[in-house]
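hiii, so i know i said id send this last week but things got crazy w the move. better late than never?? heres the sequnce for the chain we talked about at the cafe, plus the structure i predicted for it. fair warning i was half asleep when i ran it
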Amino acid sequence: MLAEKIARARQAKRRSTLRLIFLSSVAVLVAAMLLYASSHSLWPETTAPSAGDNAEVVASSDLTVPSETPATDEEARQRYLEAYAHYQNQLKPQLEQIDIKRWDEALADRLQQDEAAAIEAFSAGDYAKADSAMKALNMLAETTIENSRQAFTEAMQQAQQAYDALNYNRARLEIDNALIHQAGDQAAQQLSEKIELIPQLAWLEKAIAVARAENNPSEELRLINKLLQIDSEREAMQQRAASLQSQLAANRYDQHIARGYDAIDSQDLSTAKAQLNQARQLNPDRTENQQLAAAIAELESRLVYASSVAAAQEAQQADNWQTAVTEWKQALQQRPADKAISDNLARAERIVSLQQQIQALLANPYRLSNDLVKSKADIALIQAESVREASPSLNAIAKKLRDSINVVNKAVTVEVISDGETDISVRGVGVVGTTRSKKIELKPGTYQFEGKRQGYKSKIIEVNIPLDSASYQVSIIADERI
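okay and structure toks below
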């Protein structure tokens, strides 16, 4: 891959060099033709105008017109601006990615000076000079960028070769050269990080050789795996690791199975599962895996059952019946035929259900004045009576519900005040009639009082008669004429 990049870079550099030679040859040829034309008097002699003279120089009628008319100042100015924009937007950002000062300080100075000269000529109004200078600057910048790319590719190739040979000093030198040209390149940064691991890799290779000589396969495999964690692309080490793993697998499998059963005896579920997983990784097809898995499942069921029963009992003692329901359900999954568990779950669910029903009734106590709603509340209270001693919280809200039923069904004396001419009624309840002051009996709740009078707009007011109120006063007068 790097060799191909170098070849392409060299080919691009040759094309750039040929283009420079071609342009230089054309320039020399044009200059020679102009010199020849001047020496043979192809154009009549004229006196050059002074710097402040704006008069046009008119050629004679027999003057041979060149095939290409010289560019006007405006054309040169426009070409400069286009070349300048190309340099600033396309070339300069690429140059800024290169540490040119470290690579070639003279080149960096020249680029800076040429850019300043082009800008200075443009500022002075010499647009032809500015245009020429900017073209030369762009050409120099393009050549610099192409040469930098080639240098980067070559340095990367040399750095990779030095890394493969674990030659730290050479690899460090080459990768630093590459980063001069493309400091932000991800591949270069990754290779730079890998190069810093060369001393560790070299030490590991020596340690692996010692372990192999001492016939210590466990230590050798450990060191190889450590090396592969650093550089996983070393094929020879991969093959050796596979061989060592096969060699050690049988003994390690038996050890994991034995440790798994030891963990079961100690009721250490997590250790037993870990040993089974490691045994399966070594040999997934052995029947011992299924046998150990069955023993682990039995232990887990016993532990879950015991934990759920203890948690449910603790939740009941704390009057937390929703949690008790959850825990009893989990215990019942482990022992579906356990009647004691089923009975405890049923009681916990009944208490939770009654709590929810009573809380819903208490959320809007005014509805308790409705006979149907009151009937539901009475039934809930009767059902709660059988389990109220088990749940202090249920007993408390049941008492609150009984009090709310009594209060909401106790009539409140409401005094209706008017002008004696407004006909008053309570929507959905009955007629009050015309009065200046009249007392009626209403249960706590929300009512709409309506007042009507001939020739006046009807008036409706909404009144909320609160709980625990012995009396209430309402004033309504239809006093807005039609």
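btw Strands lie at 412-417, 423-426, 430-434, 437-442, 445-453, 456-465, 471-475. thought thatd interest u
miss u guys!!
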